[in-house]
Each structure stands twice: as structure tokens, then as C-alpha cells.
Write a structure and sequence with these properties.
With 234 residues, the chain is α/β, with parallel strands linked by helices. The protein has a domain of 149 residues: Glutaconate Coenzyme A-transferase (3-Layer(aba) Sandwich), CATH 3.40.1080.10. Helices cover 18% and strands 27% of the residues. It starts with 10 loop residues before the first helix and ends in a 16-residue tail after the last strand.
Length: 234
């Protein structure tokens, strides 16, 4: 990398500095919009003791699920864990700590972390196990619980296009958690389908400004379908 050019040529360079026991925020929803190559690089590095923050943990054998195979994840902060048998096994065996967080709350925890907001109040979860042990307050006759923001040592995200300065555009539903995740990492690594020259992206279309991005790498994506359902012919 030189100056504002944030493009790196290898996954080793993209994930340089990741160490055991760090916290990683990963964009994606199910298998949609996940940084496949960056996850594979973490698998290759063998980094363990990780706390991973993401909507879910992929599926068996793909996405974040591959990091469970060698027990690289110590704690998972997520909102949905229903597609991964190995995840369930490690949870029930006490090998994996899980902190379940309502989906909207999880997104706001990332956004708040990126905005420098340490905590916020939400009505979601009040009076349920989600709110146990958390500060609560009443505003205008309604009860709320306080949720702390989330930041991470690394954020790994996926976009459709980016320029060499890291300005990027997400495509359709693949946006999901990626914009919030991108702002919440001390080091944010962006994996994209296409890298273009500075000035080629329409400024009004940019979703995440390059100021939030530290490294950019162009990847090749399998884009696996999480669950394929077909109708029976007449």
C-alpha cells in the first residue's frame, strides 16, 4: 500500500496482524455478503481463541462455520445459530460460549461502536432473559434496557465494487450488516468483487467511505446458496 491506495495483493497481507484471542466483526447475513476469502485466510492462519461478532456462524463447512472445525472461535456474539450442527454441538458441550443478541440490537451495537457511542437504550429485550443484569430506565412511560456498543480488533466485510481508496458500494441484500461492521473495527479489511480506479464510482452511490477502510483485496466468490428450494413440476 502507498499513500491513499489501500489495495493489497495477498490474503496474508490483508489479514496481517490478526492474533489469538482478538475480536473479529464479520459482515454478512447467512451466506449472503460474507467475506469468503478473508474467512478462509483466518482458517489457514489457525488463529484461535477468537471472539466473533456476526449475525450467524455460517453453515457446516462454509462461511464462518469452517472456523469451528478446529475450534478457532472461543465466543460467538450473534442473533441466529440455527443452520450449523457443529455450532450446536460445541455449544451443548460447553466448548463454545454464545451470546445471543436480537438482530436489530446487534446491528445497532455495531453502528454505535463505529460512531463512538458507548451505549444506547432499546425496548427490545426488556423483561426477557436478554435484559437480565442490564441497566433499565423508563422514558415517557416505556421501559428500556441499556446495550453496550461493540468494536473489534478486526472487521472483515464484503462489497461489490470499491476504488483503490476503499470507497465502496454493496449490492442489493448483500449489503446487510456490512456497512455497520465496516465502521466498528480498529482495522477494517474489505473484500470486493471488482476494484476500479478512483473517480469511477458515482460519489452519491458510495455506501461506505474509504476513511473507514484500511485494506482492500479483490476476491473470487463461490456465492453458495444457503438453502435451495425448488417447486415440483406440474
Amino acid at each position: 500500500m502507498a499513500g491513499f491506495n489501500k489495495v493489497v495483493s495477498s490474503y496474508e497481507e490483508a489479514m496481517a496482524g490478526l492474533q489469538n484471542n482478538m475480536t473479529v466483526i464479520a459482515g454478512g447475513f447467512g451466506l449472503c455478503g460474507i467475506p469468503e476469502g478473508l474467512i478462509a485466510q483466518i482458517k489457514k492462519m489457525g488463529t484461535n481463541g477468537l471472539t466473533v461478532v456476526s449475525n450467524n456462524c455460517g453453515v457446516d463447512g462454509f462461511g464462518l462455520g469452517i472456523l469451528l472445525e478446529d475450534k478457532q472461535i472461543k465466543k460467538m456474539i450473534s442473533s441466529y445459530v440455527g443452520e450449523n450442527a457443529l455450532f450446536e454441538q460445541q455449544l451443548l458441550n460447553g466448548e463454545l460460549e454464545v451470546e445471543l443478541t436480537p438482530q436489530g440490537t446487534l446491528a445497532e451495537k455495531m453502528r454505535a461502536g463505529g460512531a463512538g457511542i458507548p451505549a444506547f437504550f432499546t425496548a427490545t429485550g426488556y423483561g426477557t432473559p436478554v435484559g437480565e443484569g442490564k441497566e433499565s430506565r423508563n422514558f415517557n412511560g416505556r421501559d428500556y434496557i441499556m446495550e453496550e456498543a461493540i468494536t473489534a480488533d478486526f472487521a472483515i466485510v464484503k462489497a461489490w465494487k470499491a476504488d483503490k481508496f476503499g470507497n465502496c458500494i454493496y449490492r442489493h441484500t448483500a449489503m446487510n450488516f456490512n456497512p455497520m461492521a465496516a465502521t466498528a473495527g480498529k482495522i477494517t479489511v474489505l473484500e470486493v468483487e471488482e476494484i476500479v480506479d478512483v473517480g469511477e464510482l458515482e460519489p452519491s452511490q458510495i455506501h461506505t467511505p474509504g476513511i473507514y477502510i484500511d485494506r482492500v483485496i479483490q476476491g473470487n466468490f463461490e456465492k453458495r446458496i444457503e438453502r435451495l428450494v425448488t417447486s415440483k413440476g406440474a
